[in-house]
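User: Okay, second chain of the day. Same drill as before: sequence in, structure tokens out.
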Amino acid sequence: MKKILVGFAFVGASVIAAQAQDVATKDVPQAVAAVLTQQYANATDLEWEMDGANYEADFDVDRIDHNVLIDPSGKILMTKRDVMEKDLPQSVKAAIDQSYKGMRLDDVEQLEKDGTTYYQVELDQKGEDKKVVFAADGKEVTDPAYWD
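Assistant: Same drill. Structure tokens below.
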């Protein structure tokens, strides 16, 4: 039984490691680092990870958490930043109230992908989490997927 549990722990850790792998700043391609510096000159606490073939920057701007997904050529694929519940569009608040009544809003982030704004939220009820992405008009979407 111990061997099985150790095996599961090893497989789980391997899957997590394969999904996000830390990258030293010196190993980030110049094109990737340059676009981040151009777009976010005030970034602090910068950390890099690999997300598939792309680079994910995790950093703060004015103490607000940001993430940016950048391809190896330096193209920004998607951005994410923490926002307050009060910053959600009324259409998104109404959709949450209608479809997820009784669930508590736990986490709110704004996504930008291909020039379009989305809002991803984590809802909580009795220890059960639900992660949902909404377009700005309040429609639930599956693309982009929830970005952890």
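The chain is about 25% helix and 45% strand.

User: Thanks, on to the next one.
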